[in-house]
Amino acid sequence: xxxxxxxxxxxxxxxxxxxxxxxxxxxxxxxxxxxxxxxxxxxxxxxxxxxxxxxxxxxxxxxxxxxxxxxxxxxxxxxxxxxxxxxxxxxxxxxxxxxxxxxxxxxxxxxxxxxxxxx
Length: 119
Known about the structure:
This protein is largely without helices or strands. It has helices spanning 14-17, 39-45, 64-69, and strands spanning 27-28, 35-36, 46-47, 60-61, 73-74, 80-81.
């Protein structure tokens, strides 16, 4: 009897199929696995002191609850980021004018010279 070989359907693990694409400044933390919209957001989620001589490091990733409390928001693609800052009235810059500013001054009539030129 000949054994028949049946092809097996192999499914890729979730860690490969559901991985968001990291482009631009997007990054993933190797410590906690979170995805971030920018390196700034990534840096902000790391808290604690850096290693000091003869002292243990207290650097760690924020928990999900700590990130929510700190204002991190998750976008539709699953990346955590910082919310856009809300500008107050005093922080809104005045619009730039494209028209040149001209100041007109009244000057008394100058006497002409014999050639017609002004002195």
